[in-house]
Specification:
Largest sheet: 6 strands, mixed
Low-confidence stretches: 6-17, 264-273
CATH superfamily of the largest domain: Immunoglobulins
CATH architecture of the largest domain: Sandwich
Number of domains: 2
Bound molecules: 2-acetamido-2-deoxy-beta-D-glucopyranose
Distance between the termini: 131 Å
InterPro entries: BTN3A2-like_Ig-C, Ig-like_dom, Ig-like_dom_sf, Ig-like_fold, Ig_sub, Ig_V-set, IgSF_BTN/MOG
Strand order of the largest sheet: 2-11-10-5-6-7
Keywords: Disulfide bond, Glycoprotein, Immunoglobulin domain, Membrane, Signal, Transmembrane, Transmembrane helix
Number of strands: 19
Signal peptide: 1-19
GO molecular function: signaling receptor binding
Protein name: Ig-like domain-containing protein
């Protein structure tokens, strides 16, 4: 008798939690967001029962301790919300009645890209859905080419820099025929405004050189024309410098000889020069 009673209780228990069971559904594909604009991260329960009395938590599963939005005991509780989401999240309470726990995220930032979880908990059931957010490409500043002088072999050093891209762009140097030239040094930095890139190259003869920064459908291009005069100027300078070095070495030798020959008279001679 006792056994049957217990079994009945267990069956009723299962029935109870079964009646509370629901699925949480997120979007199958990543949600694309544009920097500065608002985006909705879809999440709903199936069947569409009300979640007004449930706990709805949005968090980043790719970051530690990152509460995006918390709704509990019939209200928003955002004291522990991650700093970067402050004042930018909203759950529509009328929508919660219809089983819709979609989150509205205002003025999207580059750092919003990531993996989100929408966790919906009732007293006896807890299940979540994943929402991938991808921030759309942002074009940065037009590339700036700086002429960084000649190296020892007469090559002209060029540096190209561009900032504010997201995600990381591709920078390439091209000559006037559109042939890609390989960069000597490459440098990429990431900060809150996105990625900045800096590449250098050394060229040995006059040409029209392009520095092109590309990301998906964005492309920015800057060109520099190096005239043969620049390279001639370098050669002339090198020749002049060599001549000057030879002359001063000669002068040094002459002075040494002069001083050696005229020890004691040197100061005297100088006065008359
Ligand atoms: C915030 O975090 C603290 C410490 O983890 C916790 O005690 C408190 O209940 C949290 N507040 C909310 C609203 O969840
Ligand atoms: C749930 O969905 C059905 C069919 O899509 C709709 O008729 C019903 O009104 C919805 N219930 C709520 C509470 O929105
Ligand atoms: C869910 O709510 C959001 C607003 O938070 C709304 O944009 C969206 O259309 C709703 N989804 C459905 C299926 O009603």
């Amino acid at each position: 008798m006792k056994f049957i009673f217990l079994t009945l209780l267990v069956i009723i228990g299962i029935r109870d939690s079964r009646s509370e069971q629901y699925e949480v559904v997120g979007p199958a594909d990543p949600v694309f967001a544009v920097v500065g604009e608002d985006v909705i991260l879809p999440c709903s329960v199936k069947p569409n029962i009300s979640v007004v009395d449930m706990r709805v938590e949005w968090f980043r599963s790719d970051l530690k301790d990152s509460v995006v939005h918390l709704y509990e005991d019939n209200e928003d509780r955002n004291t522990n919300q991650s700093q970067s989401y402050r004042g930018r999240t909203k759950l529509i309470h009328q929508e919660l009645q219809r089983g819709n726990a979609s989150l509205k995220l205002a003025s999207v930032q580059v750092s919003d890209e990531g993996i989100y979880k929408c966790l919906i908990q009732s007293k006896s059931w807890s299940v979540d859905a994943t929402v991938m957010v991808r921030v759309e490409a942002v074009a940065g500043s037009p590339p700036v080419i700086t002429v960084d002088g000649f190296d020892d072999s007469g090559g002209l050093r060029l540096q190209c820099e561009s900032e504010g891209w997201y995600p990381e762009p591709v920078l390439e140097w091209l000559n006037s025929e559109g042939v890609s030239l390989s960069s000597e040094t490459t440098d990429t930095h990431r900060n809150t405004d996105g990625f900045s890139v800096k590449h250098t190259i050394t060229i040995h003869h006059s040409d029209k050189i392009h520095c092109r920064v590309k990301l998906r459908h964005h492309m920015l291009d800057t060109q520099i024309i190096t005239s043969s005069n620049m390279f001639n100027f370098w050669r002339t300078s090198v020749i002049l410098i060599s001549v000057a070095v030879v002359l001063s070495v000669n002068a040094g030798i002459l002075i040494t000889v002069f001083v050696k020959k005229n020890r004691g008279k040197f100061l005297f001679s100088c006065y008359f020069i």
